[in-house]
Amino acid sequence: YVNDSTGAGNLSLFGQDVGGTLRGGSWSLSHLSSSGILPTQTLGSGVFGLSGDAFQATFNQTRGPTHVAFSFDATSSGFNNPFGGLSTPGLVDYRFQFDQEPANHRGTLSFTFDHEQNTALGSLTSQSDAALHWTQVFSKKLTLSAGVIGTLSNAEGAGTAGATTTNPGPAFTTQADLGLQWKPSSSLGFELRRLSDVGGEQNASQPSETSAQVTLGLPGRGRAYVRELWSASPISSFATSTQSLTTPVAATHALTFGFERPVGNATVTTDYAIEQTANGNDVSSAMGMTERFDLGKNVRGNAFFQRGGSAGADSGLFNVYGLTLAYSDPGSRFRSN
Fold first, then answer.
1. Of 89, 121, 216, 276, which alpha carbon lies 20 to 30 A from 198's?
2. Distance from C-alpha of 282 to C-alpha of 252, rounded to nearest angstrom
């Protein structure tokens, strides 16, 4: 990534990845290192250095009624990747999932555990979540789910280098999770979910909330949907590196409605969102299109474009576009993208 206009934004990336398949599943390991800083940064102003690494590992396997999955991500604070989209430098996280179906295949018992750790200087916080859910399918029209979630948060220190840090101690939150899915017809569907605090302190990254959704299938023309979220408090991102993208939105209500429609090999989506629906002063919308194509038997890809805008005190416009190409030989012994 070369930015000769300033000379300070040049970046080099070096990565390796390996993966494989196993009976009923797959696994992968990858590593990406960066050297340099983005053009928006200034040489010498970053306290995290001019280089960093990102590691990732995944594993998943399904054997009969049992499914097991594991993922791990670790990114150092000095990591930069202008091609990778939104990343979380200074965050370590891993997740484990176990699902078991009964013999009649009319339900699922699911257990998940995840842990997140901010490793950046001045934000050494951690959070662990454990959840147990049961989903029961009563018929093609009705599905109910119930579960309990426990969250342990710990602030190990705060402040800047050289400052005295304190440990306020861990905070534990217990939440009850109830959900309902009802399809009175093949084209109409309703979903309702309630997440309630039943013990401990409120969790800023997952406050109690109620969400509802209505979907309507449009025969041969995709579907339309309406979603509403009522939250007890604004949701804050746990990852320190992404908090600047989420904290300016202090909404506890959000309404989203839109349409999805297939056009040939492409899917056209239109989404509209209204945040802080108590007063309705922030409205945003986005329209996009993704086109998938095949260039022969061995080359495939897709192109996408999205345009968004908003109306309100901090209104603005943005465009997002991209292109991907992938090649694989007939025996899948060589692949590149």
1. 276
2. 12
Contact 156, 131 (CB under 8 A): no
pTM: 0.69
Q: Where are the alpha helices (DSSP H) in the chain?
A: 243-246
Q: Please check the confidence at residue 162 and state whether its pLDDT lies above 50.
A: no
CA dist., res. 67 & res. 244, Å (int): 36
pLDDT tens track for 278-289: 555 566 677 788
**Residue 36 and residue 14 in contact, taking contact as beta carbons nearer than 8 Å:** no
Q: What is the pLDDT of residues 127-157, one digit of tens each?
A: 899 999 999 999 999 999 999 999 888 865 4
Q: Give the mean pLDDT of 116-136.
A: 86
| Inter-residue long-range contacts of 81-84, CB under 8 Å, 24+ positions, other chains counted | 81/11, 81/13, 81/32, 81/34, 81/54, 82/1, 82/11, 82/38, 83/1, 83/13, 84/32
| Nearest alpha carbon to residue 131 among 104, 150, 159, 109 | 150
Structure tokens at 262: 């297939």
Residue 29 · residue 18 · CB < 8 Å: yes
- Rounded Cα distance between 258 and 218, Å, is 13
